[in-house]
Amino acid sequence: MTLDRRDFLLGSLAAGVAACGPGSDRSTAPTPVVKAPPPPARKSILVLGGTGFLGPHVVTAALARGHTVTLFNRGKTHPGLFPEVEKLHGDRDGHLEALAGRRWDAVVDPSGYVPRLVKASAELVAPSVGHYVFISTISVYDKFDVVGADESAPVATLDDPASEDVRAHYGALKALCEKAAEAAMPGRVANLRPGLIIGPGDPTGRFTHWPTRLTEGGEVLAPGDGATPVQYIDGRDLGAWVVRVIEDRAVGTMNALGPERRVTMKQVLDACNHGLGDKAQLSWVDAAFLEAQSVSGWSDMPMWIDNQGEFAGFGTLSNARAVQAGLSFRPIADTARDTLAWLATLPEDERAKARSSGIKPDKEAAVLAAWQAR
């Protein structure tokens, strides 16, 4: 027998009435007692770094959940952050003495880029730490040509495994870092692969261009036909989930990006524009025209890559494992508003740096004029 949606709804209603019993008075039914979930067991967490972009979100979330945090870093980036937590000074490259003989429940590693250094820190803490959370990247994947690819997709490799040139071999080195952590602590590692991390605290401007430009209003150059899929994650959502991973002692490799369901560039920019007061008029310019005008995806047009050829699957990676492990996402409009509020708190020089990505105003105006006159 086929059960259609109408039958299902009617059946559910009938079941609800039957559950009350004949002639029952629902107002006198006992109110069910809903027990609040127990607070998480307090964890001691070591963060390697912790004062850049993602690190502070992890620390803030951990402290809010009642955990104890220790930071290990060189004391050079935002040294005044988190005066209430323990800080150990050292250097991952040969100066790990401050970690020797210490015990923590978990380690978060958002600052590992070279396999040799990840190996050294993971091996040092392995005897006394039960869980290692390594912040990797979707850049480990060799290609993005398959729509809906998951964590089993092939990763990039190095012809010269001794190379430590992070700029040239970022993804391949991160893949080797994952292996180094797992080799040091087999079965105790969570390798989390975020894509574009956005929101307050982002120093790259990769997303910041859009809320900044949209709130200025007027005609705004938008890339492609709007149908390109995009993925991203607010740093605060990622930081909170890292803490959830620690609390649940989750292990394995997971793509840490969202939102939960596939969205397009048009949906993202429309939501941001609406959340910022609908001040802008978006003009969608096709990819071929942008290329002819020397407008580059990802740099001139942040978040966006023309998903053709080797990038046919970009923006469609499966995040099912992470969602099942508790990763959740706030609305993109909230991220846009909060990003602007954060920018307003910065000194002018830092604000200009955080807004430095994206197409420049004079070039945008020229491209729009050419598009209208084509």
Structure, described:
The protein is α/β, with parallel strands linked by helices and 374 residues long. The chain has a single domain, classed as Rossmann fold, CATH 3.40.50.720. Helices cover 35% and strands 18% of the residues. The protein is built from 12 helices and 12 strands. The strands form 3 sheets. Strands 3-2-1-4-5-6-10 form a 7-stranded parallel β-sheet, sandwiched between helices. Strands 7-9-11 form a 3-stranded mixed β-sheet. Strands 8-12 form a two-stranded parallel sheet. Helix 2 (54-64) links the parallel strand 1 (44-48) and strand 2 (68-73). Helix 3 (115-125) runs parallel beside helix 4 and helix 7 (265-275) packs across helix 10. Residues 1-32 have low confidence and may be disordered.
Features:
single chain; 374 residues; alpha/beta; Rossmann fold; 7-stranded parallel β-sheet; 12 strands; globular; disordered N terminus
Question: Summarize this, please?
Answer:
Helix content is 35%, strand content 18%. The chain is α/β, with parallel strands linked by helices and 374 residues long.
Instruction: Assign the structural class, choosing from mainly alpha, mainly beta, alpha/beta, alpha+beta, or little secondary structure.
Output: alpha/beta
Mean pLDDT across all amino acids: 90
Largest sheet: 7 strands, parallel
CATH topology: Rossmann fold
Instruction: State the name of the first-level CATH class.
Output: Alpha Beta
- Give the helix level as a range of percent: 25-40%
Spatial arrangement of strands, main beta sheet: 3-2-1-4-5-6-10
What is the name of the CATH architecture?
3-Layer(aba) Sandwich
The CATH superfamily label reads: NAD(P)-binding Rossmann-like Domain
Please give the number of β-strands. 12
Radius of gyration: 24 Å
